[in-house]
Structures are given as C-alpha cells and as structure tokens.
C-alpha cells in the first residue's frame, strides 16, 4: 500500500502545484480568461422570476467557455515541448487544455446573443452590456442585463373561418399552446406553428409547412401585455393551401436501382388497393395489408404515413424503405400517387459473436455464438434464427471460487410478423409490428465436473409493443424439462451427504405453464431529468395440466415419472434514474418477488426461486448465499445457493463521471429472501433444514441485510465493465441486537477485510 501511496501523492502534489500556477504558460501580454459573470438589474430593486435559472441560462450561452481547471493543470504540468511532434510532453499536453485567453472574448457578439435570448423569453425591453475586468494575469467578462418587465399574453386571435384550411385551424384551437396570462415565449410560438401544421397534415394538406404561418405580436397595447394573432401568410403557395387524396398505391417489394426501368414496365398485380410490381413474387400480397395503412381515395394523413413507414422498417425484412408522394398532373388536381420502394435484406445471413458474460451468481466468462438467419421463410416476412453457443465461466467470488462451468446452447426461433390465434384474427393498428414467436432450445451446463444440467425448453407466444414505452410478452405455452446427470452414483451420493439440500435442488423437474411480462421504460428520452423503468411478470406452472394428470400412489402428479411443478410466481422491478447534474445520476431500484407453490411441493422449483447476493444484487454478500431469512449457509458448503419464495430488495446508487469514460459510484443495497414455509428438513437424517427461513411480515425489516460500497466503471457506450467493492453493515443471521456491525468495521484489519470485503466484477450496470 505504501509503495502505491507515495507516487500517487507525488503526482497529486505536482498537479496541485501546476494548478496553482495556472498562468505559468502564458506569454507576455496574454491574460487568462476565467469565465463570465451575470448581473441582472443591478440598479433596480425589482427581482425577476427564476433569477438563478435565468443567470445560469445566460452564462451557458456566453462564448468562449473557460478552461477546465484539471485539464489546464495537466497542460501546464507538461511544460513547453522540446519537439514539434512526438515526445512525452506533447502527449501529456494533448490530454490537457491550452489556456483560454481574454482576447478571445467577443463582447458585442455575446451582448447580442444574451439580448436575443431575453427577448425570446418575453423581456421585450431587455438590453445587455458587457465589460471585462483584469486582475494580475487573469480576466473575466461581466455582463449586465437590464430586463425590464416580462410581457404576458393578453389575447389570442386565429384566422377567420373562410375555407377548409382555416376551419380545421379553428376546430382545433382548443388544443392551442398559447394561453391568456402566460408569458410571451418564442419557443411556444414555434411549437404552436408545428401543432397547427400537424393538424393540417392529418387532414390532407400534404404540402403545408409551419413556415406558412405567422404569429403577429402587438406589444403596443401597454401594461406589459401583448396581443397575438395567428395568420396564414399571403405568400403561401397554392399547393400548400389545399388537401390531397391518394389516387394510386404502387408497391415495389423487390426494388433495386439497377432494375428500376424493368420494374416500372411490368404489369402490376392488383391486390385490393395496391398495385404490386414484382415479377419474382418475393412476398405474399396480403403482407402489405399489415404494412401499408393508406387506402385509395382517402385524404393523405401523417398518422398513416408514419405508421406505414414504421411498420415497414420494424418488420425486419427490408434494408431500405422509401415512400414517395407525387402530385398527379403537376399540381393541377388534388391527388397524389404513392410509390413505395422496398429493398429486401439478404435471404440468408450468418453472424458470429463473442460476448462477455456476468451473472448474479458472480460467474464471469465469455460465450461464442454462431447464428444462421433465414428471412422471408414462407414469403410473409417470417424469420428463422438457429444458433449454437458455447461458453466458459468461472466464479470470481463465492463458495465455488475456482470451479469452472462449461455450457453448450442450441436454439431455434421462428418469428411471424403477425398474431396467430386460433379461430380469431386480431387487428393491430399501431406503428409496431406484433409478433408470434415459437422457440425450442437445449442447454447443457457442466458445473465443475460434479454434475451436468440438461435443460430443454419450448415456448409459443406473442410479443407486442403498445407504443415506444410499453411492451408486452405473453407465452400461453411454456414447457421446461430439467434433467440432472452425475459422473457416477458415488459422486452424487457424496454431494447429497455433504449437502442434503442438493437432493431437492438437483432433482429432475417438469414445468408446464404460461407466463406474461410487461415492460415500461422512457430511458430512450435522454433529455428527461428523471427516467423510469418497470418490469412486471407473472408465471404459472402446472395449473392446467395438474387438472388432467392423476395423482400416483404417493399423492403426487407426475409426467414420465418426473414430478409436475405447480406454482404461481410474481415479480416486479421498478427503477428510477434521476439526473442530479449532467454528469451525476442517482439510480434507485425496488425489486419484489413472491411465489406460491402447491400440489407436489411446498416451495418454488429451484430454477424459479429468488436469490440474494451477488454482483447485480446485494453486493456486500457472496452470490446467492444470503438467506433465506436469518439462516446462514455454512462457509464450506459445496453448493451454497440459497433460494427463496419471497424477495425484497432495495438499491440506491450515486453515479458520477470522473474523467473521460471512467465513472465512479457509491451505493447502498438492502434486502433478503425468505421461504413461504419454514424448511424443517427431514427428521432422522442429516438434513436439519434451515431454521429462521420462514417469512413473517412483522419480522421483515428486522431480517434485512444491508451493504454499502464504491465502484469504478469503464463506460464506452457500446460496453460497460465495472468493479465494485462492498462490505456488509447489517448481517441478518447474527443474534438480534447485534445485526448492525458498524462498530466492527476495521479496514486496517487483514482478517476483517478477508471476511467482509466483497469484490464484484461485472459486465454492464447492476441495474
């Protein structure tokens, strides 16, 4: 530790010295620019609303920006290079930032920019003046803004109803963004013009533009009020002032520029309202019923336009989509021809990928996957994906430390771009393509040579995006069969003898049921200050089949001599991301899970249980070793995974940028898992159960584990690698009154560090 500390302190001292000498690299006569200062109405006692925010907005618009202190310190630390190119000094200087000089400040330009901004915010009498102040070798710009009173809207007038265009404007004026009593705001006027343009586009006015509208503002009425008049410009072209209808819908499903002339000469296939030009019959004509929303003779509208384009893009069959609207007879009438040019993707493609894997049980490794994709399998834009993957994992922390895991996975997935429902034909009119998905998969997992899991799974279901925020997945048929193999019966018996819990954990399982999950997210809206993610799921097993499968002599329901799992499983995951500043985000998560097992078992199947601890969970405890309840698994257990029927977890993490792609984090995690019924073991055997594992609502808070820590993340956008170090501050398995362990924290104690510090390596963020 001392070997690392001394060079680090020396480097910091050098940077501090260089930072204190921020003007050391200046030439004679040069002055370092330190930034802008904004004063609002300094000679007036009147304050404006949101003065602090207005100052910040004005300051952000001044140019140039002053130096980043750290980057300037690095630049100065490098000193003057001896070579024009190359060398250590040049390399260090490139990591820094050259001094920003006061001579680069253009006062008149900034005065005009700041005045223009204030005018756009309703300060119609605003005036900004700038000056500079120099002290030693440093200087700053001081801008004084005399804003005057902020103007409000007194009245709003829309154009008189003289035709269809003005009638539409007046019919929708109830949706106006302009409100009497609101402040004058230029952005609102711009958005109002866009709103009116959208209303007109929905009613056939294809060639209309927001630029054809003018907002006349009369500020001479006094009392700091304005009258706003919305008008159509007299110079607006005739083509923009009349509605258009669709005449012909021409579709070119196999278009290429090379075959353009040949395709246009073809006799089209007439299918409903479509003229299809394709001599190769690439797609079934009925596919376009679900992709193109326009009909012959109907007025053009933007909604159909956008939904058609979105569907043709999202169907996943085309590499290029283009819609062209052409006036018939060069604007002499009010009709448009719609030409749709579609260039299909290649029929077959082969992809190869290598990915890093990081799991909640602290297994880290890599996987190689090869996928063969066949598109347009039945000429209806279907897609068949067949993949083979092989992976290798090792546990970086936990009871299986040093033991490797090898996996082999094969999967076949067939996707239909429509709902396939027996005896019913649902109709979807959203911009997103509904999908019917049938899949089969097999996975072999060999865990350290001790046992091998063979998992077979088949599913049939639907994927549907309600809009860009909401997504639904429903699998009415989901069948899983898990079979466990051992190298020999001796190894199996020795494992069971050391850990009797393995007998129920590794038994063969048959799960036949249904599942549904719902996802909501607005994380794609990066300009929002607060983003939310929610995932909810419900899964049932054996409910329908249990009614038809008779009980055996032991009172259990089995299929092919394998017990049928019967359960209901619920889970909810709510996440919130709040941007404190541009480079600081406060992330929080609440994860709840509940499972109810009946029939053949008293707890969920092991593969459907909830777990606590690990790199994406409660990071201060080894993967899957926490709980259930106040139970503590033996540290020398061969198989330490402890599942539960009920889960409660809360995470809070402050994420902040350090430099470039390096980010830091401070976090607190809390939670646990419980069994719905106490595990009492098997009397008269080595299986003594797990005392304290039962869930009791009154004891929930008292049985929560709490951990805290810090982490580093390399966030290169396309991938994230992180290292978190955490330690427990509350251990639920200790006697009551002793569970908070703040007093025991001793970073200087080697034994304490070995027992309590948990290092987690992960791919991606924990949540």
Automatic annotation (TrEMBL):
Record Pfam families: Omp85 (PF01103)
Signal peptide: 1-18
GO CC annotations, alphabetized: outer membrane
Gene3D superfamilies, per the entry: membrane protein fhac (3.10.20.310), membrane protein fhac: a member of the omp85/tpsb transporter family (2.40.160.50)
Principal location class: membrane
Keyword Signal recorded: yes
Start and end residues of each Bacterial surface antigen (D15) domain: 565-742
Cell compartment(s), UniProt: Membrane
UniProt keyword annotations, A-Z: Cell outer membrane, Membrane, Signal, Transmembrane
PANTHER family per the UniProt record, alphabetical: SORTING AND ASSEMBLY MACHINERY SAMM50 PROTEIN FAMILY MEMBER, TRANSLOCATION AND ASSEMBLY MODULE SUBUNIT TAMA
Protein name: BamA/TamA family outer membrane protein
Source lineage: Bacteria, Pseudomonadati, Bacteroidota, Sphingobacteriia, Sphingobacteriales
């Amino acid at each position: 530790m001392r070997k690392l500390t001394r060079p680090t302190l020396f480097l910091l001292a050098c940077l501090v010295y260089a930072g204190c000498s921020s003007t050391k690299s200046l030439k004679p006569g040069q002055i370092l620019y330190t930034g802008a200062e904004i004063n609002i109405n300094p000679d007036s006692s009147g304050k404006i609303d949101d003065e602090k925010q207005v100052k910040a907005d004005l300051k952000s618009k001044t140019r140039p920006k002053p130096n980043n202190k750290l980057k300037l310190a690095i630049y100065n630390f490098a000193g003057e290079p001896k070579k024009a190119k190359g060398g250590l000094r040049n390399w260090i200087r490139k990591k820094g930032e050259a001094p920003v000089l006061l001579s680069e400040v253009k006062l008149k330009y900034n005065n005009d920019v700041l005045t223009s901004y204030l005018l756009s915010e309703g300060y119609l009498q605003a005036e900004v003046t700038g000056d500079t102040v120099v002290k030693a070798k440093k200087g700053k710009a001081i801008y004084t803004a005399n804003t005057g009173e902020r103007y409000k809207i007194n009245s709003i007038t829309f154009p008189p109803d003289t035709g269809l265009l003005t009638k539409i404007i007046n019919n929708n004026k109830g949706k106006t963004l302009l409100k009497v009593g609101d402040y004058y705001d230029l952005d609102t006027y711009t958005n109002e013009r866009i709103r009116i343009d959208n209303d007109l586009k929905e009613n056939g006015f294809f060639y209309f533009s927001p630029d054809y509208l003018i907002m006349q503002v009369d500020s001479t009425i006094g009392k700091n009020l304005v009258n706003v008049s919305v008008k159509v410009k007299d110079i607006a072209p005739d083509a923009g002032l009349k509605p258009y209808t669709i005449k012909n819908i021409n579709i070119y499903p196999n278009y290429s520029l090379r075959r353009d002339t040949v395709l246009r000469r073809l006799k089209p296939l007439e299918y409903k309202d479509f003229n299809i030009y394709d001599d190769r019959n690439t797609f079934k004509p009925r596919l376009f019923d679900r992709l193109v929303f326009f009909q012959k003779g109907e007025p053009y509208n933007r909604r159909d336009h956008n939904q058609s384009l979105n569907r043709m893009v999202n169907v996943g069959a085309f590499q290029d989509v283009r819609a062209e609207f052409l006036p018939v007879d060069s604007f002499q009438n009010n009709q448009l021809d719609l030409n749709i040019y579609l260039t299909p993707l290649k029929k077959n493609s082969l992809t190869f990928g290598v990915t890093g894997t990081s799991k909640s049980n602290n297994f880290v490794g890599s996987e190689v996957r090869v996928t063969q994709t066949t598109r347009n399998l039945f000429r209806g834009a279907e897609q068949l994906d067949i993949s083979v993957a092989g992976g290798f994992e090792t546990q970086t922390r936990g009871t299986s430390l040093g033991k490797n895991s090898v996996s082999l996975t094969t999967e076949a997935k067939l996707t239909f771009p429509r709902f396939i429902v027996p005896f019913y034909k649902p109709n979807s009119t959203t911009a997103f393509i509904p999908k019917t998905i049938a899949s089969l998969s097999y996975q072999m997992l060999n865990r350290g040579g001790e046992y091998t899991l063979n998992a077979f799974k088949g599913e049939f279901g639907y994927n549907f995006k309600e809009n860009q925020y909401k997504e639904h997945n429903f699998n009415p048929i989901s069948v899983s069969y898990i079979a466990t193999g051992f190298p020999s019966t001796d190894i199996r018996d020795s494992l069971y003898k050391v850990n009797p819990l393995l007998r129920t954990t590794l038994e063969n399982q048959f799960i036949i049921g249904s599942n549904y999950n719902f996802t909501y997210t607005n994380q794609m809206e990066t300009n929002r200050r607060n983003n939310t993610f929610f995932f909810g799921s419900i899964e049932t097993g054996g409910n329908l089949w249990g009614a038809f499968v008779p009980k055996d002599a032991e009172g259990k329901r089995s299929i092919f001599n394998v017990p049928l799992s019967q359960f209901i499983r619920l889970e909810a995951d709510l996440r919130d991301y709040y941007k404190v500043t541009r480079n600081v985000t406060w992330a929080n998560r609440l994860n709840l899970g509940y499972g109810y097992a009946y029939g053949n078992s008293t707890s969920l199947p092991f593969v459907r249980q909830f777990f606590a601890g690990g790199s994406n969970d409660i990071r201060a405890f080894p993967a899957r070793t926490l709980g259930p309840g106040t139970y503590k698994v033996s540290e020398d257990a061969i198989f330490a995974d402890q599942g539960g029927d009920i889960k409660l977890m809360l995470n809070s993490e402050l994420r902040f940028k350090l430099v470039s792609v390096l980010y830091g984090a401070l976090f607190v995690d809390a939670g646990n898992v419980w069994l719905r019924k106490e595990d009492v073991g098997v009397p008269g055997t080595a299986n003594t159960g797990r005392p304290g594992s039962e869930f009791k609502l009154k004891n929930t808070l008292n049985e929560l584990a709490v951990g805290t820590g810090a982490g580093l993340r390399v966030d290169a956008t396309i991938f994230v690698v992180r290292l978190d170090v955490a330690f427990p501050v509350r251990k639920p398995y200790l006697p009551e009154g002793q569970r908070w362990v703040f007093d025991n924290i001793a970073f200087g104690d080697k034994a304490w560090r070995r027992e309590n510090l948990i290092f987690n390596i992960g791919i991606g963020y924990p949540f």
